[in-house]
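It is worth pausing here to work through a concrete case rather than discussing structure prediction in the abstract. The textbook approach is simple: state the sequence, then state the predicted structure, then interpret. We follow exactly that order.
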Amino acid sequence: MRIARFSSGGSDPRYAVVEGAPGEEELLVVSGDPLFTPLNPTGERVPLVDARLLAPVIPRSKVLGIGRNYAAHAAELGNEVPAEPLVFTVPNTSVAGPGDPLVIPAWAGEELHYEGELAVVIRRLCKDVPLARVPEVVYGYTVANDVTARSLQESDRQWWRAKGADGFTPLGPWIETELDPADVRIETRRITGAGADEEVEVVQDGRTSLMVHDVAAIVAHVSQAMTLLPGDVILTGTPAGVGPVRAGQRVEVEVEGIGVLSTPFLAPGQD
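Step two, the predicted structure:
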């Protein structure tokens, strides 16, 4: 089941079940927040083309990221593969929605990188989750772009700015509640130009089966130290192929079984 958060006609954010084939989707509106209340359709339907999709979840508590969780990605940056999941935190203010433009900060320099990832959305309050019970605490999965100011990762030591700046965690287009995350494809495309002049470059093409630590291991590990709350998001790491993105380009991250998350990158002062 696909769960979207959206607005239409100037409305406040609402939630809906996404129905229909690609290009023909409709939003079956539900009352309340599905993370906290049972799905209760209102009967209203909104064509997807008439809606603006928002980040499918705004974590009330935290976003956690996992670094160097694909051996080839660790190697391409000259890093060792960690024995345990390498966990970092970013604030919920870094979350952005599908299609939201990201204005590249002047302090980010020339090395602002895309990182396409599978993201886990937590269902309920939990602590010390055993591996076998991880599926019970997962609400579903969405697509993430863990945008990173690469040059600042080293100079800042802590990654608060390199990964946690406003808009650096695009999520979307919706949450898929029935995905098996064991072996799905993650493809990232860097797009330059538009229309007849559009150039599409596939820059990442990996599978979640190549994760060093799988979803269950990640959730179990972080829950040993931190209580997880409904709506918390865990980014599971990026495959090899990371690289810079420039103003005027667009990055699409596609996760098999979920959909495509698109983010345009703008220079300061651009609308």
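Step three, interpretation. The domain at 2-54 is CATH 2.30.30.370 (SH3 type barrels.). The helical segments are 71-76, 134-137, 150-155, 215-225.
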